[in-house]
Amino acid sequence: MAAPFIEALSVFAASEGARDPDLTRPMALLTDALLRVMPTAGRGPQPSQEVVDRHLDGALAAAVGTAGELIGSVVHEVGWAKPYPEYAGEPDMDAMRANYSYAPIIGSATDAISGGAVAAPYLSDEVFVGLVLQGPDCDYPSHVHKSEEIFWVAAGTSDWQKGDVWRVEEPGGVIHHESGVRHATVTRDRPLLMLFAWVTDPGCIPVIVRR
Questions:
Q1: CATH code assigned to 47-208
Q2: What is the pLDDT of residues 116-134, one digit of tens each?
Q3: Could you state, in order of their start, the residue ranges of all structural domains in the chain?
């Protein structure tokens, strides 16, 4: 029998695919992959990050919708990591990395983005599912990756770039990035808490766009 979180995520993904035609195909990929997810054996204690210690409780208290419920049901199982270790020493990236963290929920045995700093509680080589906590006044610069990506905003209002277009997303929002689409996120005065899913190419590494 699947873990309660995996079952709940599968139901949610199916409902999202039925709700929005743009999500039908990616949610079908996710629900299919969830049939083969396995729990991770032998996971030791997992790390936290300063931004998580400062802002997670407040963001959880403000979280809304099914995404907020899913996050609340699994957040005690995850470890938190900083992305982009390869960009350490660059001032804008150092500022971003100090105020941003992500937590794999479903992923590979060794998390490639953080260089293996965290282990997901559930294993899959087909999809990558996790949490994002981006602190206030944090600029996540324009970047691209091969994965097709969906975010569900549980808490926080932020400005989002997709291609050449910027828009505002509020709690309850859903953001869909097709493979290779340039995107960025800038938070305001409150932290941003999200559930995300990469439904293709889960092992790819994001690349910052410097132009």
A1: 2.60.120.10
A2: 889 999 999 999 999 999 9
A3: 47-208
